[in-house]
Design a protein that fits this description.
two-stranded antiparallel sheet; alpha+beta; globular
Length: 224
């Protein structure tokens, strides 16, 4: 089976479970950005597969000034599905004789820096799924920022996709809705400490317990 056929087989696995976004990139240039724990064991895993699932617009529309319990549950549901997809893809690769590591969709290792094993957004950008928005999230053409992501690292060689040459243009909707005033004109000026303080405050509401917000997702529709 050639690279194209293998890639298509894995894409179909993701799509069958709801992974509507699928892309591939090399991680050679990104390796220094990986968390030390994953950097040590990913030496020969030079390919990253990025998968995205759309977040329900109806659920996001239920949010007003802060996240609610419906959004929290939906967030958890999607993360479970993403982790299942990553597991299935990794298992398929292993069955074919390759090596693969499914990276959890949402596992914060450094709360204040909101840092995980790797940046799913950065991988997704390199894999052609979207671009970095002013809200510091991935923005996709079909779903805007209304997506959750997961990554599989593998040693199999797949044809990489190209990053999108795109940006948010004249859209500034997320600047006006951010309760932390963390979003600015330039994505590089995103105020991560302010964002963290806000989601940490939200997490203290009874029953929440998650570093989530959702307000800038709600207003971001991509190219719609």
């Amino acid at each position: 089976m050639n690279k194209k056929d293998i890639k298509e087989k894995l894409r179909k696995i993701a799509d069958s479970k709801g992974g509507k976004l699928f892309g591939v990139c090399r991680i050679d240039e990104l390796r220094d950005n990986l968390h030390p724990e994953i950097r040590k064991i990913s030496g020969k895993l030079n390919t990253a597969i990025s998968i995205g699932i759309p977040v329900s617009k109806t659920v996001l529309d239920s949010i007003r000034n802060r996240p609610n319990m419906i959004y929290k549950a939906h967030y958890q549901q999607i993360n479970h599905i993403l982790n299942d997809i990553a597991y299935l893809i990794s298992s398929e690769i292993s069955s074919d004789g390759g090596k693969a590591i499914p990276i959890p969709a949402s596992q914060i290792l450094d709360r204040k820096m909101l840092r995980a094993h790797l940046s799913h957004r950065e991988i997704a950008y390199k894999a052609g799924l979207g671009w970095r928005g002013r809200n510091n999230l991935l923005v996709t053409k079909p779903y805007g920022s209304k997506v959750r992501l997961v990554t599989v690292l593998t040693d199999i060689e797949l044809e990489p996709d190209k990053p999108l040459e795109h940006d948010c243009g004249d859209c500034h909707d997320c600047l006006t809705v951010c309760p932390a005033d963390a979003i600015n004109e330039d994505p590089n000026d995103f105020n991560l400490p302010a964002c963290y303080r806000q989601v940490e405050e939200f997490s203290r509401y009874k029953g929440y317990g998650h570093l989530i917000c959702g307000l800038c997702l709600r207003c971001c529709d991509g190219d719609e």
